[in-house]
Amino acid sequence: MVCVAHSPDADDLFMYYAIVFGWVSSPLGQKFENVALDIETLNVATIKGIYDVSAISFGAYPFVRENFALLRTGVSFGQGYGPKLIKKKATHLKKNFRVALSGEHTTNAIIFRLAYPEARIVYKNFLEIESAVLSGEVDAGVLIHESILNFDSGLVVEREIWDIWQEFCGTDLPLPLGGMALRRSIPLNKAIDIEATLSKAVAVAVRNKKLLSKMLLERGVIRVNENELDTYLNLYANNDSIELNAQQKQGIDKLFELGFEAGIYDILMRCEDYFIPTEYGDLRFS
User: Fold this and answer.
1) Which of 191, 200, 284, 186 has its CA nearest to residue 241?
2) Domain 84-169 belongs to what topology?
């Protein structure tokens, strides 16, 4: 049984549930089970090596590179959008403002720390960030997942993480948010099969978006309404989620470069060096 861990946000559920509903199966007959946890919990769990396959922030991947390979599918990028730094109206942020972030290893946290080195950071579950700002516990917070679509009217966007990313890049590269990682100890033929099965699940989900969305809403596993779900999936679970393209790979490499230059990562990485070697698909044993 292969355990696939993903976040409970709409795009991860959408991309995985073609397997749950039996629309996609493994050519090798591998069986899948899933667990849904918030993304920072999954980042830490992957660092500890808990799950076979897990959603992971691209910003966390360098910390697990020796024990996990990157998958080319199930990816979420920002393209003109992404996490939002929000605050209460009329609040002026000082250099050392208090801010709530969704986790130390998330991509948005890494980019935020590069842009605001003097900010005082508190890490919280992403579902608690909006209320922390509204209560005055913190001066600001970075909203992620579906929270970017519908937050309290008393809050305003101070800055888009997308804009910060563009300033660092100097070009229009997509913002690498979340991907998937697979344990390297899994035999190669099975690893290739897992990636192919997950890729097919994402492709089937995207092609059958309306039906799958309806089924997820009927089962009450989605935190947003129908219109918000449609908007969110258009952003984060679309044709560009099926398989990494060249521009997306450049975006990942730029994130790794920024992290290395800031001393966050210990080596300069290229994502191409960390994928499963699918050219060995004819092998039956690793």
Assistant:
1) 200
2) D-Maltodextrin-Binding Protein; domain 2 (3.40.190)
